[in-house]
């Protein structure tokens, strides 16, 4: 198992450019999510998906789009990059999110994005 | 909404001495709590989780945490710090469809 993979590892964008951060998992996980990590703020949820074809917004969704056409892939699109989107982005997945059971979330290695 | 507060932004210990990382939670029901570790320029790894089965939870690499409902705390401890424990640690609570993260505690280990 490769686990959760993310590409690219690093990216520099100019303000107004768009791009897609890729995330894939090979564990047949139902639940996938995107977080951003900023200094002193922990991780904050951007968007999540509880299965193929189902997505929803997290805490900080503005400026980002997602889709989930397959179980394996969950790309994050930046529509028009802004300096405030400079951050480290993590994709995570877990077996399920149903009920009270606390399934472990597996995190990818992250994408470090700088917007100038 | 559930939330956690990590009481120390930075902890410095000597190698071989105990480590204590403090976390308080706010929850309207029995919470699911986690500790994750992040080594420099790496992703996050689960250390341990509490899901109401036992109040003392043992994790990987010698870490353990105790759930105390009366104090709304979930502090992380390790009896003897190792140089490889230098990292950032996050206390996390499950909140509906997401995890809510604390701000993190950076641990440095002095030789």
Terminus-to-terminus distance of chain A? 36 Å
* Quaternary organisation: heterodimer
Number of helices of chain B: 0
Silhouette of chain A: globular
Strand content of chain A: over 45%
Share of residues in strands of chain B: over 45%
Radius of gyration of chain A: 14 Å
Strands of chain A, count: 11
Helix content of chain B: under 10%
Main pleated sheet of chain A: 7 strands, mixed
Roughly what percent helix of chain A? under 10%
Q: What's the gyration radius of chain B in Å? A: 13 Å
Could you outline the blueprint of secondary structure elements for this entry?
The complex is a heterodimer of chains A (116) and B (111).
Chain A lengths: L3 E4 L2 E4 L5 E7 L5 E7 L5 E9 L2 E4 L6 E3 L9 E3 L8 E8 L11 E2 L3 E5 L1
Parallel strand pairs in A: 2-11
Antiparallel strand pairs in A: 1-3, 3-8, 4-5, 4-9, 5-6, 7-8, 9-10, 9-11
Chain B lengths: L2 E4 L3 E5 L4 E3 L1 E4 L6 E6 L5 E7 L5 E3 L5 E5 L4 E6 L8 E9 L2 E4 L3 E6 L1
Parallel strand pairs in B: 2-12
Antiparallel strand pairs in B: 1-4, 3-9, 5-6, 5-10, 7-8, 8-9, 10-11, 10-12
Describe the structure.
Chain A contains no helices and 11 strands. Chain A is globular and about 40 Å long. The model of chain A has no long low-confidence stretch (mean pLDDT 93). Chain B is mostly beta strands. In chain B, the strands form 3 sheets. In chain B, strands 2, 5, 6, 10, 11 and 12 form a 6-stranded mixed beta sheet that branches. A 4-stranded antiparallel beta sheet of chain B has the order 3-9-8-7, with no helix packed on it. The radius of gyration of chain B is 13 Å and the shape is globular. The model of chain B has no long low-confidence stretch (mean pLDDT 92). Chains A and B meet through strand 5 of A and strand 6 and strand 11 of B.
Features:
heterodimer, A: 116 residues, mainly beta, seven-stranded mixed sheet, globular, B: 111 residues, six-stranded mixed sheet, four-stranded antiparallel sheet
């Amino acid at each position: 198992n490769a686990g959760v993979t993310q590409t690219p590892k690093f990216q520099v964008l100019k303000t107004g450019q768009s791009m897609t951060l890729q995330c894939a998992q090979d564990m047949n996980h139902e639940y996938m999510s995107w977080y951003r990590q900023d200094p002193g703020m922990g991780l904050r949820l951007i968007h999540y998906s509880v299965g193929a074809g189902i997505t929803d917004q997290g805490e900080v969704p503005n400026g980002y789009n997602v889709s989930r056409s397959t179980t394996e892939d969950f790309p994050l699109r930046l529509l028009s990059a802004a300096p405030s989107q400079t951050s480290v982005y993590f994709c995570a997945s877990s077996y399920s999110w149903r009920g009270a059971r606390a399934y472990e979330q597996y995190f990818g290695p992250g994408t470090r994005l700088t917007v100038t | 909404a559930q939330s956690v507060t990590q009481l120390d932004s930075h902890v410095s210990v000597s190698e071989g001495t105990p480590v204590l990382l403090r976390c308080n939670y706010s929850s309207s029901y029995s919470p699911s709590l986690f500790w994750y570790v992040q080594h420099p320029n790496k992703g996050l790894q689960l250390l341990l989780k509490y899901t109401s089965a036992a109040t003392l939870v043992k994790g990987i690499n010698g870490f353990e945490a105790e759930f105390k409902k009366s104090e709304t705390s979930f502090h992380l401890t390790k009896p003897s710090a190792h140089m490889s424990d230098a990292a950032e640690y996050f206390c996390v609570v499950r909140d509906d469809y997401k995890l809510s993260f604390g701000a993190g505690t950076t641990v440095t280990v002095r030789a």
